[in-house]
Amino acid sequence: MPDTLGTSPDDVQFRFRDDEMVDHAAVTVDAFLDQSNAAAVRIEPGDDARELLPHLERIRLVEVNFPGFMDGRGYSSARVLREAGYDGEIRAVGEVLIDQLAIMRRCGFDAFAPASKLDEADAEAAFNRWDDVYQKTTDGRAPIWQKRHG
Question: Three-class SS string for the chain?
Fold first, then answer.
């Protein structure tokens, strides 16, 4: 099971990083681009993560907000950042559901701060449900086609 940190009695954060919890006040993308000392940014639906690419070396934390479970734009934001080489913490915040955890991890999320408490046993089951994947991932697992064809 990943490290589990409670930020309040109602919240559970599931983490996958070995380093300590990054705890910076995240600012909006626009505010981040205007500030020279910000180290954390919060991506909202509709923000373009590619605007952050020239600044990856100074970002310690990226929070990606999921205001509703049906809005999947945050998955793309995480993927864009990971594929560009960002190796800092990407934290999914908001309406993060059990059914989304494994896919979020595959897209590059390594920390989760759900708006509502999640059952730890259910979360562990979600992360371990599928041994094999079909698409290229950012979590280091080789997709089935690559295993078959090298």
Answer: CCEEEEEECCEEEEECCCCCCCCCCCEEHHHHHHCCCCCEEEECCCCCHHHHHHHHHHCCEEEEEECCCCCCHHHHHHHHHHHCCCCCEEEEEECCCHHHHHHHHHHCCCEEEECCCCCHHHHHHHHCCCCCCCCCCCCCCCCHHHHHHC
